[in-house]
Write a structure and sequence with these properties.
Layout: H1 15-38, H2 40-57, H3 68-85, H4 88-93, H5 95-110, E1 114-115, H6 117-121, H7 127-136, E2 143-144, H8 149-158, H9 160-171, H10 181-199, H11 223-242, H12 251-271, H13 275-293, H14 296-303, H15 307-333, H16 339-342, H17 348-355, H18 357-367, H19 377-381, H20 401-432, H21 437-456, H22 466-492
Antiparallel strand pairs: 1-2
Length: 493
């Protein structure tokens, strides 16, 4: 039996070979594209880009900030990327922080569900609207639990930032965990540099229309939030000094750079103009001293190095004293309102938070069960103001974050908050009782770093800003993965 073979007279290869070659090219192209997205350096680059995005656009808490129109959609895109890339084990490592943020988002959505008129009108604070409905024949209108639905939607979308931040921490592999803190540390340094330039008169570097002008607010709109960030930055720099590897040839350079940063942070804290930030600096300095006392690189430089190195460290210490002397001299010869001068002066805007504190407790008493809706505090508070206390200053936030949180979320949010605090304490104790020196230093750092933001929330609202949410969420995720890593090391050992 004879067979016929078709010949391509154009001189090209047979069709079968050409198709096999095309398939190989497509497979290689597909593998290259998949390999590009699986490259671990890409994950780190995207993580760094997200932190930079939030740092440049998320320094304010007001819902009418235009930069949020850029931040929120891009945060949603980052979230899609994380959902696409994260595995079940990586998700499990940061399970509790994700569940906490997800639960808050669910509460916000439930607050937007329309309720039957009979149920809605029976809730506290709805009596006046119910009477108007009856007067105008609108008794059948269904309304959500939130008394300010647009603000609740804003709060819901704002939670994309901490959700993405925790997701990125979970997405990083074990050997990449050392990159969790450096990018937010760099962002903090950037805010410090911008603050110094603002203190020198660079008015063009204020990024927000409603801001504390003539104060070095850095990347924020509020001087108090900048002061909280500087205190956290101080803790983080000292912790990074404890992580310096003595075998690293650049250990001395890293030690000198870290100490120089410490000496630069203190003067800016004094001129920021935040009384709360200055008072918070005292316990922060104690925690920093505890960590530096345990820093191997600093101990070796002081005890086992040459006389020249010890003189250099002493010189750096003298530099900070000289810098502080210059700051105090500047305060003495100028009329600039700084944290020190404000310790002995009254600020009408700050006095409002104490004047209205009984009213805030009254709101919590009225709404502790069901809440008023995320973000609805400002609108509802207008109904509690006294006529004799009305002025050009106003409260857009309670400045007592735990109280405002309960007012807005009710009993469900309070139970979530208690569960979160219990989780944090248990994780910190687990790190502390691990018996390893590094784990204990990490426990001290995370206790101080998380505590800075939580304590500041007792007199302000730093975690209402996307930038504050980012830092706090990353710290929480860091605590979660550190505990998981500790458990794995115990099992291996």
């Amino acid at each position: 039996m004879s067979s016929t073979v078709s010949v391509d007279r154009s001189g090209s290869r047979p069709a079968g070979r050409r198709s096999r070659k095309t398939s190989k090219k497509k497979a290689a192209s597909s593998k290259g594209l998949r390999g590009f997205f699986q490259d671990r350096r890409l994950h780190l680059a995207i993580y760094f880009a997200f932190i930079l995005l939030v740092g440049l656009t998320g320094g304010g808490s007001r819902p009418d900030i235009l930069s949020l129109l850029l931040l929120r959609p891009l945060a949603a895109l980052f979230l899609i990327y994380i959902v696409w890339r994260i595995s079940a084990d990586e998700l499990k490592a940061v399970r509790f922080p994700l569940l906490f943020i997800g639960s808050l988002m669910v509460i916000a959505l439930l607050q937007l569900v329309p309720l039957p008129p009979v149920i809605w009108s029976s809730l506290p604070g709805r009596e006046g609207v119910a009477q108007l409905d009856e007067l105008f024949g609108m008794q059948d209108v269904w309304r959500p639990l939130s008394l300010e639905p647009s603000r609740t939607w804003n709060a819901f979308f704002s939670m994309f930032v901490p959700l993405v931040a925790v997701g990125f921490v979970g997405l990083l592999w074990n050997r990449e965990r050392r990159w969790i803190l450096p990018p937010i540390l760099a962002m903090g340094v950037l805010s410090m540099v911008v603050g110094y330039l603002q203190a020198l008169g660079a008015d063009s570097l204020y990024f927000y229309r409603v801001t504390h002008g003539h104060h070095p607010v850095g990347l924020f709109a509020n001087k108090n939030h900048q002061a909280v960030l500087l205190n956290w930055l101080l803790l983080t720099v000292c912790y990074m000094i404890t992580r310096i590897d003595l075998r690293d040839r650049r250990a001395s350079l890293r030690l000198a750079s870290g100490l120089a940063l410490v000496f630069l942070i203190y003067p800016l804290l004094f001129v920021t103009g935040s009384r709360a930030g200055l008072l918070l600096c005292a316990p922060v300095s104690v925690v920093c001293a505890v960590m530096l006392w345990q820093a191997p690189a600093l101990n070796r430089a002081w005890q086992g190095s040459s006389r020249r190195v010890r003189l250099a460290i002493t010189g750096l210490g003298g530099s900070v004293l000289a810098a502080l002397a210059m700051v105090f001299g500047y305060l003495a010869i100028t009329e600039r309102q700084t944290a020190l001068t404000r310790l002995f002066e009254s600020d009408p805007a700050d006095e409002l938070r104490w004047i209205y504190l009984p009213k805030i407790f009254e709101m919590m008493r009225d709404y502790w069960l069901e809440g008023i809706g995320f973000g609805a505090f400002e609108s509802v508070f207008y109904g509690y103001e006294n006529v004799e206390n009305l002025s050009t200053s106003y409260l857009n936030q309670a400045h007592f974050e735990p109280l405002q949180y309960v007012i807005e979320t009710g009993l469900a949010g309070l139970l979530l908050l208690v569960a979160a605090l219990v989780w944090v304490v248990r994780r910190l104790l687990r790190l502390w009782h691990a018996g390893d020196g590094k784990a204990r230093i990490l426990a001290v750092y995370l206790c101080g770093a998380l505590g800075v933001w939580l304590i500041a929330g007792l007199v302000d609202y730093p975690t209402r800003t996307p930038l504050g949410q980012l830092v706090f969420a990353i710290l929480t995720g860091f605590l979660a993965v550190s505990s998981i890593d500790l458990e794995r090391h115990r099992k291996i050992g």
